[in-house]
Known about the structure:
Rossmann fold; alpha/beta; single chain
Amino acid sequence: MSIIKIIETINRIYLDAAPIIYYIENEKQYQKSTQYIFDRIDDGKLTVVTSSILLSEILVMPIRQGLTQQAFDYRQILTIGENTEYVPILDEDAATYAAELRAINKSLKMLDAQHLAIAIQYNCDSFITNDLKLEKVTGLPNNFHIILLDELEKELST
């Protein structure tokens, strides 16, 4: 099944940091894919789940570079954006699931395991990223999709 068809059948997504940064910074290489995703969110066809972990990860560079407005924009999009569900903390179930994912995927980073655990706990259908390593993670539900921006971009460009 094509990635576009998968996205058309899902309701809830979790975005990794890269797609959000690419969208806000209008990264030309990923303009079609990020615009496609955010248009579906804006149209109410997708609900995006975000988390405090994602927020702290994304805010590092704007804060480091003194980009106050950009940091504010990120906070707005991730916490109160339209069709956005913000998860303020990692609860015990998500923390346990993240540990289980790390236990069976030795090269999986803790932040990535936590992102995936939150996505699954909050009933997301997919996780959109540009991290090729995440495509190989085992122990995820059968109906859960890891979608790579590179692949979506290629599909949208043909």
